[in-house]
Write a structure and sequence with these properties.
about 5% strand, 11 helices, metalloprotease, HtpX_protease, globular, alpha+beta, membrane, four-stranded mixed beta sheet, metal-binding
Length: about 325
């Protein structure tokens, strides 16, 4: 196995375990201090149960809300315009050894693709109309290799579980803050301390969101790896897809690279901010942008606030995986 893939897997495992252990340790310590060690597990389990129920409801019915937001319509093989997407998705699913998801076309004005689903809605993959206009079939397959990688690796479920940690800390902090304001607390009658700890936990819950974003970036990188490893030519075609999406949504990105040596085109793919596509995308520009990204040194903070790795990082990882 490629060394880069091994490092990525190790980072994902360590980061996920670290978020859980650090979060639960902090929650248990704070709850034990104010309510006693005996009652701490019951308090934490009670809050987690509430959060899990909310997350499950969101997960179960979320696909229907997504379809409404994105004006997504299911595609069948008999569709005269988009029916060819169904065997394409089936082929990618076969490469990945998973059941083929339902295929949807999303009528929104920006190039995107995303995988979603639930036990009652089934597995789904959606492709927006602008993406179909700027990518060829091989590039679409590479994007689908990324998306079906999310389904294969159960990323939605994993990230929902990790997302419970900042939510748990937030609700504990919120409860302590209000208890302090109302002068509560059986073990510690210092309402001021309770209020301060509550406010501090609210801040800490916000900081934990950055850890969740970090884990999400690792999962996105791993989905890129999945495309490179399962789709013939996936690494090269995913590079081209990323470049085409960036050029279509940010036509001046190459000019910024040419003028300053490095532009701000660190655009991430999949669920980025909606942007109207502009102009034509030439193969010469695509290759030039990819070559810029291959050698660009990306500062550590470039994607700190993003749930996707900076695009040059993705291009450079894919470059190391061009073995198919």
């Amino acid at each position: 196995m490629n060394l880069e893939v091994l490092k990525l897997k190790a980072n994902m495992i360590l980061a996920s375990i670290g978020v859980f252990l650090l979060g639960f340790a902090l929650a248990f310590a704070v709850v034990s201090y104010f309510f006693g060690v005996t009652f701490a597990p019951a308090v934490i389990v009670g809050i987690l149960s509430f959060l899990v129920v909310l997350n499950i409801l969101q997960w179960l019915f979320g696909p229907y809300l997504i379809n409404a937001m994105y004006r997504a319509v299911e595609v069948t093989p008999s569709d005269p315009r988009y029916g060819w997407l169904v065997p394409l998705v089936n082929e990618v699913a076969m490469y990945n050894g998973i059941e083929a998801p339902k295929v949807y076309i999303a009528d929104v004005p920006f190039p995107n693709a995303f995988a979603y689903g639930s036990p009652i809605a089934g597995k789904r993959v959606a492709i927006t109309l602008p993406l179909l206009k700027i990518l060829n079939k091989d590039e679409i397959k590479a994007v689908l290799g990324h998306e079906l990688g999310h389904l294969k690796h159960k990323d939605v479920q994993l990230l929902m579980a990790i997302g419970l940690i900042p939510a748990l800390i937030f609700y504990i902090g919120y409860s302590l803050m209000w208890s302090g304001m109302l002068g509560g607390g059986e073990r510690n009658n210092n309402s001021g301390v309770m209020w301060l700890v509550g406010v501090a936990l609210l801040a800490v819950s916000y900081l934990f969101q950055f850890l969740v974003l970090y884990v999400n970036r690792l999962r996105e990188a791993y989905a890129d790896v999945n495309s490179a490893q399962t789709i013939p030519g996936g690494a090269h075609n995913l590079q081209r897809a990323l470049a085409k999406i960036t050029l279509a949504t940010d036509p001046e990105v190459l000019e910024r690279y040419r003028n300053r040596g490095a532009g701000n085109g660190l655009m991430s793919m999949l669920f980025f901010a909606p942007t109207q596509i502009n102009g034509e995308v030439s193969d010469m520009d695509v290759e030039e942008l990819i070559n810029y990204w291959k050698t660009q040194k990306v500062p550590w903070y470039a994607d700190f606030f993003s749930d996707h790795p900076a695009t040059p990082k993705r291009i450079q990882l894919l470059e190391k995986l061009k073995f198919r």
